[in-house]
Specification:
Protein name: SAM-dependent methyltransferase
GO biological process, one term: methylation
Strand content: 25-35%
GO molecular function: S-adenosylmethionine-dependent methyltransferase activity
CATH class: Alpha Beta
Keywords: Methyltransferase, Transferase
Number of domains: 1
Helix content: 25-40%
CATH superfamily: Vaccinia Virus protein VP39
Mean pLDDT: 87
Radius of gyration: 16 Å
Order of helices and strands: HHEEHEEHEHHEE
Shape: globular
Low-confidence stretches: 4-12
InterPro entries: Methyltransf_11 (IPR013216), SAM-dependent_MTases_sf (IPR029063), Thiol_S-MT (IPR052356)
């Protein structure tokens, strides 16, 4: 499933990206400023939404996803550079970025706490950290269903953890959460935070 996942994912997400997700991404990414790091850029779906930034350095470890970015780079209004890198080992100097964006990616990162530590390292003090993620739900029956489905889902969907509690993991870092907004009964969240180092 690994090599087919990017294509299947793109087809499955297309209806959501045309409606509610487009509004969420636009609202969140419009808050990015300066030099931006995007974690796990996937197919590049965020690239057209960057407007008031200097440049975007995007990491994506999946070569098929990087290949899919070409159509979105051509629609971008800013300079985009793609790097083959993992979130837990970012190839950038300390205090480089003014903003960090991650959308629907922390569910797949093998060591999310290490990734947050790396984000803190490479972003400037006070840098904006902007996340859009699906998370473990607070509603216990639905959370239990996420727990049951996750082992199979992970194998089929390129390592995606349906039940990852990204907000709790973020709380283990020195990143200060300013605002959390919930969507789809708490299945999806947007987070606005700052690097409080």
């Amino acid at each position: 499933m690994g090599k087919w996942f990017p294509w299947v994912y793109g087809i499955a997400m297309k209806p959501l990206e045309r409606s509610r997700f487009k509004k969420i991404r636009t609202m969140l990414i419009n808050k990015a400023v300066g030099r931006v790091l995007e974690i796990g850029s996937g197919s590049g779906v965020n690239f057209p939404y960057y407007r008031n930034v200097d440049q975007v350095d995007a990491i994506e470890p999946n070569p098929i996803m990087r290949e899919l970015t070409l159509k979105y780079i051509s629609r971008s209004h800013t300079q985009i550079r793609i790097f083959s890198a993992e979130a837990e080992k970012l190839p950038f100097d300390d205090n480089t970025f003014d903003s960090v964006v991650a959308t629907l990616v922390f569910c797949t990162i093998p060591d999310p706490v290490k990734a947050f530590e790396e984000i803190q390292r490479v972003s400037k003090p006070g840098a904006k950290i902007l996340l859009f993620e699906h998370v473990r739900m607070n509603h216990q029956p639905l959370a239990k269903m996420q727990d049951i489905l996750t082992p199979l889902w992970r194998k089929a969907c390129d390592g995606c953890h349906l039940n990852r509690d990204t907000l709790r993991l973020l709380g283990q870092t020195e990143i200060a959460i300013n605002q959390v907004d919930y969507y789809y009964k708490g299945l999806f969240v947007t987070v606005e935070a700052i690097n409080d180092k």
